[in-house]
Amino acid sequence: MTAVRKVVLDDRGLDYVLEHLSGVNLFCSALAEVVASAPGETWTSMSLDVRGERAYRFSEGGLGLNASAASLRAARIASLLDADADACCIIDDFNSRWGDHELEDSPTAFGVGEEVYHLLNGASDAADIAQMLQTTDCIWHGVAAVCVPRPLETADDQSALAALHECARTVVEISCTAYDGEGFVVWRRRD
Description:
With 191 residues, the chain is of the alpha+beta class.
């Protein structure tokens, strides 16, 4: 695996995350509202030899991370899920539509209207998460959000849309594809 380092991003990183979340689906719109109003930090992982302004060219590939980017991102998500028993991760699946035949056997998929999302929890290991990210991410879009929603009183307490909004409200970290699908940018809520 390529040696990497964490690079804290300035406001351009925040702008990228907000742009990535804008106008895509209901969940991303709800996440964008939180990111725009809650204190947070944006960062990325880069190989050790990538320096300076290169971190801000979010649409360009060539970082040298390639397949390890999904593994890095998945390991981060898995560690957050392990750290809080109530945490969940919602991954949007932009290319699928609810009702598609290939989703029938998916234990993680759920729909809101025609939109498709996948719900993961602490039982999901990093390899499963990486596979889900590789399946759902497009070169131009892919969002995974770790949230800590309050437990529902009953199974029918909220509709799927209301549950999505509740999850978005409690988001602790969002990762978005970047660098032509070869990397990612993270927004992390600050307490």
